[in-house]
Design a protein that fits this description.
Strand order of the largest sheet of chain A: 10-9-13-11-12
Structural class of chain B: alpha+beta
Shape of chain A: globular
Number of strands of chain A: 13
Number of helices of chain B: 7
Distance between the termini of chain B: 27 Å
Oligomer: heterodimer
Distance between the termini of chain A: 71 Å
Number of helices of chain A: 21
Radius of gyration of chain A: 24 Å
Order of helices and strands of chain B: HHHHEHHEEEH
Largest sheet of chain B: 4 strands, mixed
Radius of gyration of chain B: 17 Å
Largest interface: A-B, 53 and 41 residues
Chain lengths: ~525, ~150
């Protein structure tokens, strides 16, 4: 193995590709060679770096210096100053004062432990980082029911939204005697403000595949589908490459590792429908239908894709599984709280100093996430609210900043944990305006199957538009709450049951704003 | 032409969404015509109304001819709060069209869409397969001008 003095990690993602990162790397390599540094400084093309800078972003180790918006013309200065003379270029740093470096917290990561470190397009690097050891263990040294009970013991809960215990879900499907069973990965991420699954897939596609394999083995499925949204081009490309590499290495296919177990994994591309994040709607879509949700029961675990028992899991959920199998349930339980085990991946957006991506233990407070990982509020802005969980989320006011982010502490708001989206709003932004945008979204995305959601979303949008214009009354506000409560108790699927949380939290915590605007 | 695309896939209903994607991508006007619906229906042995139902359910498909470049501006809350409405106004002004319309020269179609999952760089739009983030009115002007030049 070769050793280098410094490593330059270059984040390859949608943003940097657009900024011409490919040519940039060629130029950077040439410049390093010009100074005869190619044996000392290594360039690594990798996934998300943990912060969302503009343009091309770099992280340099072991110095832990992060640069953003680096352009081709900055290369000579960067190489000469930083890599030759050892003086980081302050003007290009993520925080131009040089004071803040995002807390990357690698030692506490599970899902993102390789993200931003290894080359996501290389199976060898994944294996070098201990990848596929869990798969080998699960396939050769464990019985399917042992895998299920280990996952059950870990306390892992679904990271898609509902927070259903993963091991329990698997235990419904595993014992069923059926000629064909399926595993379906829900990668149809569509919750506004949410893109942790995209970053997980872009940063470490093999870890997701390993999770899929272990799940397939546990429940006895010989075919797995990854249902991914059509817009995630880079993810699709990287996952396909990863699947091809696995086939080539004999990690999937027929009679894997002489175990007698067969598995094939394939990608299916969605076509743009928020409701397809609901597992039964997703199955309908996979079968080539409109994405209308199905009646439950029977649950997909018993009767899912083409009426076969099907386990549907979110990307982040499955990405946790290799760690649990390799290190054991207790190692997983060492993270998080008694009721909410493990870690959670969040994306922090809005008026914070450094929007970014982080993975923290369950139960970490919102304040810690915002201050330690995102550098606090942007200069000159005051915190007003955080919209946690996207459109199907809740507004949390300042006095809720110290709430622990776990299923037990958030209680009836627990569903918002799944998406991991934290959108920070400043004191000049209007909750009413934001709520209008959210309800417009629901009105557009309601699939139209059931009346409460179809008509309810329309009426909610009508009321909030009236309120936003200053023509509403407090009775209209109350009516919105009543309608959304009715939708909660009568809608067919989670989509129609969602608006109640965001409306109730807006009205409860920011009542003054509604009073002010209805008095106009 | 449509038949050729169909036969790349086995005649199973679950291939419908992929077939429709490919038909739409291969059409210079990025849409799925009635003729295409008929061909797919015959190939998969499904009633045309099933195809039409699927086609109109998903936002990525169009039943109407569209421009050479499709602009999809995100209108979801994270982009909205970062001023996507101003970007929309600017785009309408630059292109001289309303939302959902195509420019007279057939170069652009302006559409709105839901969250594209690039919220770290809000406001965001996609032009065909490329994502453009951190949009400002000036940047939008540049992007449109660049694509226009490329199309001449």
């Amino acid at each position: 193995m070769k050793f280098y003095r410094s490593h330059i990690l270059v984040g390859i993602n949608e943003t940097s590709l657009l900024a011409g990162v490919e040519n940039f790397i060629v130029a950077l390599r040439a410049e390093l060679a010009k100074h005869n540094l190619q044996e000392e400084i290594n360039i690594l093309e990798t996934g998300p770096l943990g912060f969302f800078g503009r343009g091309i972003c770099l992280s340099v180790y072991p110095e832990n210096v992060s640069y953003q918006d680096v352009k081709a013309e900055d290369i000579p200065e960067l190489v000469e100053e930083h890599f030759l003379k050892g003086r980081p270029v302050t003007r290009l740093m993520l925080d131009a004062t040089g004071k803040f470096t995002p807390k990357l917290n690698y030692q506490n990561r599970i899902v993102l432990r390789n993200s931003g470190i290894i080359d996501p397009e290389s199976i060898d690097e994944y294996i070098g980082a201990g990848g596929y050891e869990a798969w080998e263990k699960a396939l050769v040294r464990m019985q399917p029911m042992e895998i299920v009970s280990e996952v059950r013991k870990s306390g892992l809960q679904g990271r898609g939204g509902a927070g259903f215990p993963t091991g329990v879900k698997w235990s419904f499907t595993a014992p069923i005697d059926a000629p064909q069973k399926y595993v379906v990965v829900n990668a149809d991420e569509g919750e506004p403000g949410t893109f942790k699954d995209r970053l997980i897939m872009e940063g470490d596609p093999h870890q997701l595949l390993e999770g899929v394999m272990i799940c397939a083995r546990a429940v006895g499925a010989s075919k797995a589908w990854i249902y991914i949204r059509g817009e995630y081009k880079l993810c699709i490309e990287r996952l396909q490459k990863a699947i091809d590499q696995c086939r080539e290495y004999g990690i999937i296919g027929k009679n894997i590792f002489d175990s007698g177990f067969d598995l094939d994994i394939a990608i299916k591309i969605g076509a743009g429908a928020y409701v397809c994040g609901e597992e039964t709607a997703l199955i309908e879509s996979l079968e080539g239908n409109r994405g209308n949700p199905r009646w439950k029961p029977p649950f997909p675990g018993v009767e899912g894709l083409w009426k076969c028992p099907t386990v549907v899991n979110n990307v982040e959920t499955l990405a946790n599984v290799p760690f649990i199998i390799k290190e054991g349930a207790d190692a997983f339980r060492a993270h998080g709280t008694q009721d909410s085990t493990g870690t959670k991946v969040y994306t922090i957006l809005g008026d914070v100093a450094h929007p970014g991506l982080c993975e923290v233990d369950m139960g970490t407070t919102l304040r810690t996430i915002i201050n330690d990982y995102a550098g606090g509020m942007k200069k000159g802005f005051r915190f007003k609210a955080a919209l946690v969980g996207g459109a199907a989320g809740v507004f949390l006011p300042e006095r809720m900043l110290d709430v622990n982010m776990d299923y037990a502490s958030l209680k009836h708001y627990a569903a918002v944990l799944g998406s991991g989206a934290i959108l920070v709003m400043n004191e000049h932004q209007s909750i009413v305006d934001m709520l209008w945008s959210i309800l417009r979204f629901f009105r557009h995305e309601s699939c139209g199957k059931c009346a409460p959601c179809r008509n309810g979303c329309q009426q909610l949008y009508r009321l909030i538009t009236k309120i936003k214009k200053g023509e509403g009354t407090m009775e209209d506000v109350d009516l919105m709450v009543t309608i959304s409560e009715t939708m909660f108790s009568t809608s067919f699927c989670a989509l129609g049951q969602s608006p109640v949380m965001v409306i109730r939290s807006a009205v409860e915590y920011f009542k003054d704003e509604f009073i002010a605007i209805t008095k106009k | 032409m449509y038949k050729e695309i169909c036969t790349k896939y086995t005649p199973d209903k679950d291939n419908l969404i992929c077939i429709l994607h490919e038909i739409q991508d291969s059409h210079p006007q990025h849409y799925i015509s009635e003729e295409a619906v008929q061909t797919v229906a015959e190939y998969l042995d499904l009633p045309p109304n099933h195809i039409y139902g699927v086609l109109t359910f998903y936002t990525m498909y169009s039943t109407k001819p569209r421009g050479k470049n499709i602009i999809r501006l995100c209108e979801s809350p994270p982009c909205y709060i970062k001023g996507s409405e101003n970007i929309l106004r600017k785009l309408r002004e630059l292109l001289g069209v309303k939302t959902g319309e195509t420019t007279k020269d057939g170069v652009f179609t302006l559409e709105l869409c839901a969250c594209l999952g690039v919220c770290g760089n809000a406001p965001v739009m996609m032009v065909n397969n490329d994502v453009y983030g951190d949009l400002t009115e000036e940047r939008v002007e540049e992007i449109i001008a660049r694509i226009r030049r490329g199309n001449q």
